[in-house]
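Risk mitigation, structural track. In case the binding assays with zinc ion fail to produce interpretable data, a predicted complex structure has been prepared as a fallback.
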Amino acid sequence: MIVLTNLQMDKILSHAECAYPDECCGLLVGERRVRDVFVREVHQSANRAASPANQFEIDPQLRFDLERRMRQESLDLVGVYHSHPDGGAWPSETDIDRAWESDLVWLIIDVKDGSAVATRAHLLLEPKLRFKETSIEIISN
Ligand SMILES: [Zn+2]
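Fallback model:
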């Protein structure tokens, strides 16, 4: 399960809609308790992919800056989010090929004609880094 506040979810969905027809992407920082993930911060990233319409690549500088602060504040990188312009909310072949780091939740937003229509969360599990869908819980702030 991944737990987000409705403000955090709004931030992600509006990023996905603004980036349309390109993919948006960002990092989720928070805490992990067993298999559950509690998001504390949503960090939008520039999409550094060469073809952002069907790929995403997190800005390495964002990751680098966050790593240092997360260590100081005992927070973890718990997930990554990105959007699929007119592409569904399931991991694409590209996502499966490029999946890295187990235990991260991948939040995928399906954006149709500029509107976010579906969001699904997928947990990347070892071995073999397979995706398994996990539930999303939205709490009020
Ligand atoms: Zn994708």
